[in-house]
Amino acid sequence: MKLLHKTSALSFYMIHTGFMAFKARIREILNATSDTNLEDMVDDDALHAFYRSGESPEFVAATLCDWSYQD
């Protein structure tokens, strides 16, 4: 059985700050292009899925804008 590796504090910090920068960039794009509020549209769990899959903030913002216009 393979042992689980502990995530170091530095690794966790790098992942967390990368996600926070990703989220901040999406928020900037949405504020510049529409009146859509990021927190009203999607939660962090959904954004983590986009972040882990390697999607660009521009793609995610465009997708969220499309979702807001369909409602």
Structure report:
It is a single chain. The protein is mostly helical and 71 residues long. 75% of the residues lie in helices and 0% in strands. α1 (9-33) crosses α4. The longest helix has 25 residues, at 9-33. The mean pLDDT is 83.
The helix content, as a percent range, equals over 70%
- What class do helices, strands and sheet pairing give? mainly alpha
Q: Return the string of H and E elements.
A: HHHH
> How many runs of DSSP E, i.e. beta strands?
0
Q: Main sheet, how many strands, which sense, barrel?
A: none
Work out the helix count.
4
Strand portion, in percent? under 5%
Low-confidence stretches: none
Rough outline: elongated
How far apart the termini lie comes to 48 Å
Q: What integer is the average pLDDT?
A: 83
Radius of gyration: 15 Å
Question: What are the defining features of this structure?
Answer:
71 residues, mainly alpha, elongated
List the helices and strands and how they pair.
Elements lengths: L8 H25 L4 H4 L2 H10 L3 H14 L1
Helix pairs in contact: 1-4
Structure summary:
The protein has 71 residues and is mostly helical. The protein has helices at residues 9-33, 38-41, 44-53, 57-70.
